[in-house]
Every structure is written in C-alpha cells, then in structure tokens.
Write a structure and sequence with these properties.
Layout: H1 2-7, H2 12-37, H3 40-56, H4 58-62, H5 69-97, H6 101-107, H7 115-133, H8 137-148, H9 153-160, H10 164-184
Helix pairs in contact: 2-3, 2-5, 3-5, 6-7, 7-10, 8-10, 9-10
C-alpha cells in the first residue's frame, strides 16, 4: 500500500521526506494504534490511512520541527485510532438496536415448554424490556454489550474508555436498576 502512496507523489524531495518519515516512525505508530484499537489489522489500516492523509498535507508535515515530529505523529495516530473505536461502537449500537427482542424471545424459548410457560416467558421478556428502556443510555449500552453481544468487560471498557473494574460497577448498577424497576412494577419478588 505504501508503494502505491509513494507513486502519487510528484516531487522527489517530498517522496524522500515521506520515505524517511515512514521508515523512522512506522513501527512506533503501528504499536500506538494497536495499543488503542487492540486489533493488528485495524491498527495497520489506521497507519496506512494516516500516511495517505500525509500525502495530501505534506507541506504541513514538513513544517513540523524535527524534534517534535514523533510526538505530533503519535498524537495524530491516537486521534485516528480513537475514531476507529467510535466507528466500531456505532456499528455495535446499530447491531444491538436492530435485534428484534420479541422474535428473539419466541425463537429461543424452550420448544418443550407448555403454552402457559411460553406466555409467562413472553411476559417476563416484555417486563424486562420495559425496565431496560427506562434505564439511562450508558446502562443500556453496558447491558447490551454484555448480554446481547457477549462482549467481555475488557472489550466494553475499551469502547467506553474505562477500565474493566468500572465496567463491572456499571453492570452491577444496571442490574440493580432493572431489578428495582421490575420490583416497583410488581414484577419482581421482595
């Protein structure tokens, strides 16, 4: 990919500058991107996209002082990596939002269950859904990530920008809030 990028540069001086920039900073930038996105393929894409961006703004990069260049590049890669996380989060929200909860409840109910059990299960699912929809957005997201998407606490923490212990705290509060809402509506036992 980088070779294709180089072919787009007309000036030999700019081409030499970009090759030097790439060779001196590629591994550092790749490591930094991977530290944030936790996916080597996404990290590689971030770095390659960044160097494509550099081509169109090469004068700006040439004006950065040599002693501050590395810090400037790392800051740029961090921002682009965080953008990848935001895009990933948006996709996961879209996936979680597109789940048909009613269909899910019937498709995954026990086939050997009696009609009464199926109806009771349906009522429980509706009650839980109603309680879930009354939660603040953050608690909804944490529960969706954990129970609908099956994500680990660490993965959820990366998306929310918190550590996994904080995620566990969010999950505990969200479960308590759902229980409290169900209890207030007479759906849960004391």
């Amino acid at each position: 990919m980088f070779l294709l990028i180089l072919q787009m540069i007309e000036s030999e001086d700019d081409r030499a500058f970009l090759v030097d920039l790439y060779n001196q900073n590629y591994q550092l930038l790749l490591n930094e991107a991977n530290r944030i996105v936790h996916n080597p393929h996404d990290a590689e894409d971030v770095v390659q996209d960044f160097f494509s961006y550099v081509i169109t703004h090469i004068k700006r990069f040439r004006n950065v002082e040599r002693c501050t260049m590395r810090n400037f590049l790392v800051m740029c890669i961090r921002r682009r990596s965080i953008d990848v996380l935001r895009i990933r989060e948006t996709k996961q929200k879209h996936i979680a939002g597109s789940i048909d909860h009613d269909k899910f409840a019937f498709e995954y109910s026990d086939e050997k269950a009696s009609f009464e059990e199926v109806v009771l299960n349906r009522i429980v699912v509706e009650e839980l859904r109603d309680a879930f929809l009354k939660l603040p957005d953050q608690q909804q997201h944490v529960l969706e990530y954990k129970y609908l998407l099956g994500m680990t606490d660490r993965e959820i923490g990366r998306i929310l920008g918190v550590n996994q212990h904080t995620v566990r705290s969010y999950l505990t509060r969200a479960r308590k809030a759902v229980y409290q809402l169900c209890k207030e509506n007479g759906y849960a036992e004391e």
